[in-house]
Amino acid sequence: MLKGKHIILGITGSIAAYKSAVLCRLLVGAGAEVRVVMTSLAKEFITPLTMATLSQHPILVDFFNPENGEWNSHVKLGEWADLYLIAPATANTMAKMATGVADNLLLTTYLSARCPVAVAPAMDLDMYAHVATQRNMESLRRDGVHIIEPGSGFLASGLQGKGRMAEPADIVKAVEELFSEKKKSLEGKHYLVTAGATIEAIDPVRFISNHSSGKMGYAVAEALAQRGARVTLISGRTALDCPKGVERVDVLSAEDMYNACCERFEESDGAVMCAAVADYTPATVADQKLKKGDGDMSIALKRTHDIAATLGQRKGNRLLVGFAMETENEQSNAEGKLKRKNFDFIVLNSLRREGAGFRGDTNVVTLIDAESREELPLMSKRDVAEHIVDKMEHLLK
Ligand code: CTP
Question: Is 279 in the pocket of ligand 1 (CB under 6 A)?
């Protein structure tokens, strides 16, 4: 189950850090590749040498190596990982995670990680029971962090109660469950995801396009793939890397995207239409670069295919999810598209909302189906993608 999995093991300053050595050994023994990130205080409880030897890689503590200036990239590390496991997680670190404080490498890695995150809390019973700690853990849960419950028993303080970090073998079991849960839910399904902007050529040099970055569609593709679905990402031009485990088909124009979707829709279980497709394309594409004249010029445009509407007509019992980006009459426009294109649900984002729209990493959306509407708060596009996939799974049931 853990063979070949990339796991970041984060260690914070708790006496339970001595158990992290055994945990690391068990993870490596199960076939995982482990990289260890420690806080400065954690080094007082367990030596870097121990952890480096067990994980077979140098441990990471600082943003850079002061000897040679080599940068420890938390972004790369976050991208590399299939799981970020913080064990032990102190009350202090969980409080910082809950509020987005990023004052050490372990925390910046948390903010950069695109993978699931699990924490195994360790602290004294009163600290654990304190309303502030409980509030922070609840907030982490809401952010999608998996909490591996501490056990009850003898604590380093001499007291007895809840707060002891879960035993390494139990943490490994929890990690295995996490991977299998994520894996199973959409295994055997195949979804198309359209993403990014289309490019409509005017001549060999110019084109008509839009501001879409593709981030939302790529996040949906990644979320589906992480739950075990086969994903074909039909992508207009973007600067993004293809998410792990996703098959990407690169297209340029709306016509190319239409053909790529139509070819594959039949054999799929559905599609999520995130792309910003041009509704019009130049009626003719000039063979040579257009030369300017003295006066104004106009370009004749013709309609493109509405890809989503075409798939909507052919959908049968497949799932079809659409997006609507609106600047006015948001709700009624989105509801119109929901019906017209035969979507199971539509994701409305209003350009009027702060934090929503093109290029950014966050979005504010409302999920609308024939019976209900669910307004989501401002969140990362990756979290929006999780909500979309949750709703798809809900409809499948
Ligand atoms: N869409 C599509 N093909 C098109 C246009 C849109 O597949 N030619 C899809 C988008 O990917 C999105 C949904 O249809 O999921 C709605 O796109 P949007 O651009 O908001 O709507 P339009 O149909 O273009 O309507 P309007 O221009 O009136 O807003």
Answer: yes
